[in-house]
Design brief:
seven-stranded mixed sheet, five-stranded parallel sheet, disordered N terminus, binds thiamine diphosphate
Length: 684
């Protein structure tokens, strides 16, 4: 396996400077709560002291004052600091450990923020954040009101571009480079740091294809650790392995680097030397043309991404070379924390852990817990596929995240990880559907935004039997605005032929999946991040009538119409309302399209006070569908639509964000009371 390439592994670092005061973590283990009640924001007494050199660095200008000889120690201290903080605050882990040396070298060599640095996805940029003015705030990383887990323009001038979704860095850096040229700012450098996983995204190639046509001054750094969240997939991975391990290539490469080292001495003759180097590579080494070279990028590397001295030397050289260049850097995900190096998927974002023992904290068990929705999906697709040979599973690079890995294990020929390629995932599913297969195409709601045209053009217009399971529908939590699944109910409901549904609990998810197999049409099922509500969820399948909702609680004063998991919050609100003498009814609509018109007629005939609740944006979503029904059928009622408002919602726990956006249990209760004419604040 390519994971075992010859990149030196540092010994584990001594781990001693955090004072653990309370073992606890949020459900799911990845999202510490920031509620101030009981001091939960500070689950641990923060006593994380940066090392001697790191403590002198607030900004890259401070870093640049150090001698090159100090950089190894700075890297060690930075790595230690990331381990200390992430172990008690959570967040992405392995990726940032792998980019420590890269982060230090980049800020040491380049004149950031004037030179512009774009991190692809941005989950690997903790080192960058710590070196660019955010060390003091870093303990609030991903916590409500704190700094973002991803680079973000409004957070720092060093964050040249806001990220979260993958494969955007090359296009963004190219745009910056072209802008610099047009503005006559030829001195500026533009750097995109992209992982081998993110490079599987088609957009990265679109960017390179364009960048190769001009003499734009940009450097792409390929941070190749052989990993996506799960092991990276595809032919490109094999290609990168070939150029990494070719002995002939590596021999000539060393010669090339020796020559490169001399470039600065040659001054204006640098170009001709580079030309010679290129020719040497092309003719002597790469018998078939180098992929990046054929896109007009000058390819350099591979180099050891954990040798900071070497990185500095190489980057200094590359700074002098004009035009589009790609530096292939080999790194180890989880570098310096042994367990993270050994199980890179688990330690991508492990949640809170004891850094000394490596124990990952689980929420204290209170008997049988409801499962995560994603696991219900993972087990149910296998159950369905065992008896129906037509069923296949597709995920764009999220097998662990969406639990399709369960099927990949049991039925490797029928479950496909296609790389970070949402558009391809949808059209690939469409292709299989034309041949009578029934694909479950599982894509996070937020990432499905990438594949919208494919959903319309390749699936819906041809009315193909593709089942979309949209995980992380609704507030995503600590990942923040780039990851909230806010829009799918809206963007799916306007597509002809599309059935749009959301289960209220695990049993309904299973039954919707079962129903979708039996219904030859494009079918979308969305469910949230995290756990459901039913410990005993594995019930026999029942077919649900398409477009039929169900009454959960009968009432007479006010009707609450909910879609999906929000029905559980509404149920709690209804009980609170009952205790206050308000007789509220609750309807779990299950389908946004076709919406249950019979049920809506009954509701509008009975109630003149109606609340809709959805974990999605209110404009154009489920509540809008109810309003349209009211207008189309000449009803009139007081309707309050609760859901995500028209604003960018930052990060926090799901509960915090539901409350902020005013559609949690409390908000539902209070809204009903207000509709009933009670205006005092409600305590639920
Ligand atoms: C469009 C899109 N799809 C999926 C993801 C989820 N995701 C986040 S990081 C990641 C893996 C990225 O791999 P790589 O670029 O190699 O970085 P590494 O974590 O290995 O450093 C994935 C799939 C995403 N951020 N954006």
């Amino acid at each position: 396996m390519r994971n075992s390439r010859s990149v030196t592994t540092l010994p584990n670092i001594a781990l001693s400077n955090t004072d653990l005061v309370r073992h606890s973590c949020s459900e799911g283990g990845t999202q510490p709560s920031s509620s101030s009640e009981g001091g939960i924001l500070y689950l641990y007494k923060m006593n994380i002291i940066p090392g001697e050199l790191l403590s002198q660095i607030d900004y890259p200008a401070d870093l640049r004052r150090f001698r090159e000889d100090d950089l190894v120690q700075i890297c060690n201290e930075l790595r230690q600091y990331i381990i200390d903080i992430v172990s008690v605050k959570g967040g992405h882990f392995g990726a940032s450990l792998g980019t420590v040396e890269l982060s230090v070298a980049l800020h040491y060599v380049f004149n950031t923020p004037d030179d512009q640095l774009v991190w692809d996805v941005g989950h690997q940029a903790y080192g960058h954040k710590l070196l660019t003015g955010r060390r003091q705030q870093f303990e609030t990383n991903r916590i409500y009101g704190g700094i973002s887990g991803f680079p973000k323009r409004k957070e720092s001038e060093y964050d040249a571009f806001g990220v979260g979704h993958s494969s955007t860095s090359i296009s963004a850096a190219l745009g910056m480079s072209v802008a610099s040229k047009l503005k006559g700012e030829d001195h500026r450098q533009h750097i995109a740091v992209i992982g081998d996983g993110a490079l599987t995204g088609g957009m990265a190639f679109e960017g390179m294809n364009h960048a190769g046509t001009g003499n734009n001054n940009m450097l792409v750094i390929l941070n190749d650790n052989c990993m996506s969240i799960d092991p990276n997939v595809g032919a490109l991975k094999e290609y990168l392995t070939d150029i990494t391990t070719s002995p002939a290539y590596n021999k000539v490469k060393d010669e090339v680097w020796k020559l490169l080292g001399k470039i600065s001495k040659f001054g204006p003759d640098a170009r001709s030397i580079v030309q010679k180097i290129e020719n040497a590579i092309k003719s002597a080494v790469l018998k078939q043309s180098n992929l990046f070279e054929s896109l007009n990028f000058r390819y350099f590397g591979p180099v050891d991404g954990h040798d900071v001295t070497r990185l500095v030397q190489v980057m200094k050289d590359l700074k002098e070379i004009p035009g589009p260049k790609l530096l292939h850097v080999l790194t180890v995900k989880g570098k310096g924390y042994k367990l993270a190096e050994e199980d890179q998927t688990l330690w991508h974002a492990p949640g809170l852990f004891n850094k000394d023992t490596g124990e990952i904290f689980k929420s204290p068990s209170k008997g049988a817990q409801p499962p995560k929705y994603q696991d219900v999906f993972g087990h149910t697709i296998v159950e369905l596929a065992r008896t129906d040979k037509r069923i296949v599973g597709v995920t764009p690079a999220m097998p662990s995240g969406c639990s399709l890995n369960i099927m990949m294990k049991e039925m490797p020929d029928r479950a496909f990880d296609v790389g970070i390629a949402e558009q391809h995932a949808v059209t690939f599913s469409a292709g299989m559907a034309t041949q009578g297969l029934i694909p479950f195409c599982n894509i996070y709601s937020t990432f499905m935004q990438r594949a919208y045209d494919q959903v319309i053009h390749d699936v819906a217009i041809q009315n193909l039997h593709v089942i979309f399971c949209l995980d992380r529908g609704g507030m995503a939590g600590a990942d923040g605005p780039t990851h909230h699944g806010a829009y799918d109910l809206v963007y799916m409901r306007c597509i002809p032929n599309m059935i749009v549904s959301a289960p209220m609990n695990e049993e309904e998810l299973r039954n919707l999946m079962f129903t979708a197999v039996e219904t030859p049409a494009p079918f979308s099922i969305r469910y949230p991040r995290g756990n459901g509500v039913m410990a005993d969820w594995k019930k026999p399948f029942t077919k649900i009538e398409i477009g039929k909702g169900r009454v959960i609680i009968q009432g007479a004063d006010v009707a609450i119409l909910s879609i999906g998991h929000m029905g559980n919050l509404a149920e709690t609100a209804v009980k609170t309302l009952q205790s206050k003498g308000v007789d509220a009814a609750l309807y779990d609509m299950r389908f946004v399209k076709p919406i249950d018109e019979e049920m809506l007629h009954a509701v509008f005939n009975k109630f003149d006070k109606i609340i809709t609740v959805e974990d999605g944006c209110v404009q154009g979503g489920f509540g809008s569908a109810v309003l349209e029904f009211m207008a189309d059928n000449n009803y009139s009622a007081q309707i309050k639509r609760l859901g995500i408002p028209d604003k960018v919602v930052e990060h926090g726990t799901q509960q915090e964000l539901w409350a902020e956006c005013y559609y949690d249990e409390h908000a539902i209760t209070e809204t009903a009371m207000h509709l009933m004419g009670v205006t005092e604040t409600i305590t639920t």
